[in-house]
Design goal:
This protein has one domain (5-195): Spore Coat Polysaccharide Biosynthesis Protein SpsA, Chain A (Alpha-Beta Complex). The chain is 32% helix and 17% strand. It contains four helices and seven strands. The termini are far apart.
Length: 204
Amino acid sequence: MTSTRIIIFAKAPQPGFAKTRLTPALGAEGAAELAQQMLFNTLHEVLAADIGTIELCSTPNIDDDAWQGIKLPLGIEITDQGEGDLGVRLARASERAIENAGSVLLIGTDCIEMSATLLREAAQSLHGHDAVIHCTADGGYALLGLKHYSAVLFSDMPWSTDAVASTTIAHIGQLGWSLHVGQLLHDVDTPQDLKYLSPKMRFA
């Protein structure tokens, strides 16, 4: 299989910074602990997928005190998300990756169904398609895979709404790119999403 770069967008799992919408249910410390578990679970699955270079794109910068004590596995590149809204940061990372690697999978750490098998299948989909997307039940997406770069996919997007995935799919269609739409996934962002966690990860 052709090498595919995986870029993981991640916040430092610190109280009051990560998973803040879960604070009413879990408290700030509990939300941060869950964020750390989900970060490590995602890293485990990405390493197991073994399909190419792994890049953790962090906020804040990995040298910030917020990351102190977080022991990340060896074998991953670490970059800074930098300034700008989510679209600006995703655009910057994806453009760089496609220039250097040829194809990229963009993921976060919020999806409890992200797995090595799913990542390998997404990378395989890019052999026959220009893009691949795994939408989430809340209208966003948990994975976006690309062989080409276009700022259209990240500019003037309705981030944090239920129209993110549909708008992205529409833009891919307007570009004339072929698209594989994978299975629907679930992010854990709100107290209502906690039911999707496996028993070993449940806090409430």
